[in-house]
Write a structure and sequence with these properties.
Layout lengths: L1 H16 L6 H4 L4 E4 L12 H9 L4 E8 L5 E3 L11 H4 L17 H4 L8 E2 L4 E2 L17 H15 L4 E6 L2 H6 L4 H11 L10 E4 L2 H9 L6 E5 L8 H4 L5 E3 L2 H4 E4 L5 E3 L2 H7 L3 E7 L10 H11 L4 E4 L2 H11 L1
Parallel strand pairs: 1-2, 1-13, 2-6, 7-8, 8-9, 9-12, 12-13
Antiparallel strand pairs: 2-3, 4-5, 10-11
Helix pairs in contact: 3-6
The chain binds calcium ion.
Calcium ion (CA) binds next to strand 2.
């Protein structure tokens, strides 16, 4: 018995010394498809049906945006507000703050569960933000917690034999702090409980707030793979980011400038500079129904993935991205 204990202790110690390498998916140089809020081009964002669809479409990662409820449940929702994607204004009219908005953080989980989720709309006129997507307030969709989504994805990983990753984003840590909450602490605890602890585990943690991501690395000593999201006009220094993060998440215009005189797309130096520092680049957001000056979605994918050479993309249309990459590789 004593001998076993010694062996066990030795094993634990040697594991502790081992510096974890990123998961196979990130290590392999295959382009990575991140389902942005699920297959949000087809079903209301961040609903479990949208996640199931993205999973079935072959995405490598499913994204979770996370905001806390009043009773500290991490909720999978993009905004700190509720009125763009739920019927909160009808169900809880008195919970509106003086700024006219409904905050996730003012509701306990049980109340949030009573809301119906809709395709994103403008609360002023109830019009869909993306007119060609799933109709507004049709069928029944619900909000869910981070834990519920992890169980959903891990359950699918078991039943399909695949290993699809999660890609959680800590939303607005400064706002949460002002409301008296430490969102990072709560999110990290949930990830830890479900086995997401190191770069080997199929999880990428993202945040726009550099101070917070540094805090996650240094104060919480997280060993997760971390991506620093970059604002539209970011002045973050890549050298600085490389001291605490493993990748960056730039906006498309930060990697692709306009066309030159000959009609050729101009690439910025961001991706090459990031690669020199061993940072992966996952760019956002690729939408087949929001092409800007690109002729087609395939044209946009081609320039971003194979000319700008990003390592992965956040997309509302994971099926189209997977099909394009499969054809190329
Ligand atoms: Ca996000």
């Amino acid at each position: 018995m004593y001998r076993f204990l010694i062996i066990f202790l030795m094993l634990s110690l040697s594991c502790g010394e081992h510096k974890p390498e990123p998961t196979m998916e990130i290590q392999k140089n295959k382009k990575v498809v991140i389902a942005h809020r699920g297959a949000s081009g087809y079903l209301p964002e961040h609903t479990l049906p949208a996640k199931a669809m993205a999973y079935a479409m072959g995405a490598d990662y499913l994204e979770q945006d996370i905001v806390l409820s009043r009773d500290n449940v991490p909720i999978v929702i993009h905004d700190i507000h509720l009125e763009m994607v739920t019927d909160v204004a009808k169900k809880f009219p008195k919970k509106k703050r003086i700024d006219g908005r409904f905050y996730v953080i003012d509701f306990i989980f049980e109340e949030l569960k009573q809301l119906n989720v809709s395709e994103r709309f403008d609360p002023v006129n109830d019009k869909a933000v993306f007119p060609n997507r799933f109709p507004v307030f049709t069928a029944t969709f619900k909000l869910h917690s981070l834990q519920e989504e992890i169980e959903f994805i891990q359950g699918l990983n078991k039943s399909t034999g695949k290993n699809i990753g999660i890609y959680p984003e800590i939303k607005e840590p400064e706002f949460h702090r002002k409301e008296g909450k430490d969102i990072s602490k709560i999110v990290l605890k949930a990830l830890n409980e479900y086995g997401y602890k190191t770069k080997k585990d199929n999880c990428i943690l993202q945040c726009f707030d550099a101070k917070e991501l540094k805090r996650v690395r240094h104060e919480f000593k997280s060993e997760l793979f971390m991506v620093q999201l970059m604002e539209f006009k970011s002045d973050e220094k890549l050298e600085e980011i490389a001291t605490y993060a493993d990748g960056i998440g730039p906006w498309i215009p930060q990697i692709i400038k306009g066309k030159d005189k000959n009609g050729k797309w101009q690439i910025t130096s961001l991706v090459a500079n990031a690669h020199k520092l061993n940072l992966k680049v996952h760019a956002y957001t690729f939408r087949a129904d929001q092409l800007g000056d690109f002729d087609s979605f395939e044209d946009l994918l081609q320039v971003a993935l194979y000319e700008a050479n990003v390592d992965g993309i956040f997309t509302d249309f994971p099926d189209k991205a997977v099909a394009f990459i499969d054809k190329k590789e």
